[in-house]
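Shipment paperwork, digital attachment
Item: protein structure file
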Amino acid sequence: MARVTVEDCIVKIPNRFDLVMMAAQRARDISSGAELTVDRDNDRNPVVALREIAEETVDIASLEENVIKGLQKHVEFDEPEEDEMDLLAIQQDMQNEIGSIGVVVGSEDDTLSGDDEDESSADDVVREFRGDGNDNADAEDSRGR
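Attachment content:
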């Protein structure tokens, strides 16, 4: 066979796109040093690959498997470095501390206000905790002087 056409190979591999992928894979294999199964006859690697497919001198199933392996991508997951792990641990500790402070303020609400009213707001509790008091008249007197 002097020249190979797609029609000679389409009988072996009915899908033209698959044929192109298989021939390209075989041409890459030839370029990387795979042994030829037909005479080269001064042809380039893609033509030799098509001739091999047309004459069925290569295993099409193994070509298809090589195409699939060549197209698969291995996604490598980056493991966090020690510094990042330390930072994450510190952030987690801070979040736990903030959460526990909120629980303490909420649970000491009755003890800080000195009365058993459940209606005191968080702002009142914070003001009493700081020692600001929650009487607006006292605040106005101290500003007016």
